[in-house]
Design brief:
By secondary structure, this protein is mainly β. The protein has 2 domains: 25-93; 96-161. The chain is built from 2 helices and 12 strands. Strand 10 and strand 11 form a beta hairpin.
């Protein structure tokens, strides 16, 4: 089953600012490093590039910011919310779907043995987005299977077979 970075609280702390620098800003470097670590461990084999975040952010519970992770052909969006201590809570409005999990799901729900192709090794989609797979059934017929992403955890539903 695909996994997604959903919530990781208490991810990173930054050193307390000096009294003169108590302007309540925090570096986003700890959040960037934690996002890169989570993407690397959560999605083995997913090649990704730069994790881009604003360099600093106001240290307040309402001052959230967005980071993007560069993936082949797309971006993965991660929202970060710092608290007054410099700790970040991470969430994402997207699911990272693995080709293998999608194909296994479609094949398990086919009426006959099927060879399934759902495209690239990883897909990034928002809940409500569609994913199209092709199923070659054991009787020689081919079917187009439409899936809809249900949530950021990567759960999908088959909505059409044509």
């Amino acid at each position: 089953m695909p996994i997604a970075i959903v919530v990781c609280s208490a991810l990173a702390s930054v050193a307390a600012p000096s009294a003169a620098a108590a302007s309540a800003t925090s570096s986003t470097k700890p959040a960037r490093a934690e996002i890169a670590r989570l993407v690397s461990t959560s999605y083995p084999g997913l090649m990704f590039g730069n994790v881009a975040c604003p360099p600093t952010v106001r240290r307040a519970t309402s001052a959230s910011f967005t980071c993007t992770v560069q993936l082949p052909g797309t971006f993965f969006v991660v929202d970060a919310s710092p608290d007054r201590t410099g700790t970040f809570t991470l969430s994402t409005p997207q699911a990272v779907l693995t080709k293998a999990a999608l194909e296994q799901f479609v094949a398990a729900n086919a009426s006959l043995d099927a060879t399934v192709d759902c495209g690239p090794a990883f897909l990034v989609r928002r809940p409500g987005d569609q994913v199209t797979c092709t199923a070659s059934l054991a009787d020689g017929t081919k079917r187009t299977v439409t899936l809809v992403v249900r949530d950021v955890a990567g759960n999908v539903t088959i909505t059409a077979v044509t």
